[in-house]
Amino acid sequence: MKILCIGRNYAEHIAELNNETPDEPVIFTKPETALLQRGMPFFYPDFSTDIHHEIELVLRVSKNGKNIDPKFAHTYFDAIGLGIDFTARDLQSKAKSKGLPWDLAKGFDGSAPLSPTFKPVAEFADLANINFHLEVNGEVKQRGNSGMMLHNFAAQIAYISRFITLKMGDLIFTGTPSGVGPVQIGDQLTGYLENEKVLELSVK
């Protein structure tokens, strides 16, 4: 199982971090050990003092594929859930300032909490109009809609599969909307897919 992630896929998030808008999808990966499931808490690591939450729609890949045509891309995932791309912003900023990779800032253990609930694709009336949001201690911090993506689901799958073969069970984190910010020990994070609470997480 691979965790594939799309960076810089929402214009307002690009702006809030003062990044350049890419011409093509930005792809990075997280190792399997980043996955955090079944309501397990997120333990704040000792190597960072600036962990940020990034809520994302997550696609579950349902069959193997390589060089997938965008018009058939919708047949390669069968369910959608929520995930949090925890980012050690201090480590990322340090690496970026030196032009170095920022794998450790994104791929550390527990950095990819995943909702235990994934909704079948057939339950969504319009894949280009899926609402989701994240609350921190009961306050909405991030709110997004799949229609705001610079690269939609089909474009992401087609692009990734040019370089990396997709396999059944892979997860695609599709990018985060604006509103990212730090978490602290004691915070309670709650993710909503449409208006359904599908992800709960405590920071310890």
UniProtKB/TrEMBL annotation:
Gene Ontology MF: a single term: hydrolase activity
Superkingdom to which the source organism belongs: Bacteria
Keywords linked to the UniProt accession: Hydrolase, Metal-binding
Record has Oxidoreductase as a keyword: no
Coiled coil residues, start to end: none
InterPro entries: Fumarylacetoacetase-like_C (IPR011234), Fumarylacetoacetase_C_sf (IPR036663)
Annotated Fumarylacetoacetase-like C-terminal domain residues: 2-193
Listed PANTHER family: ACYLPYRUVASE, ACYLPYRUVASE FAHD1, MITOCHONDRIAL
Protein name listed in UniProt: Fumarylacetoacetate hydrolase family protein
Organism of provenance: Hymenobacter nitidus
Record lineage: Bacteria, Pseudomonadati, Bacteroidota, Cytophagia, Cytophagales
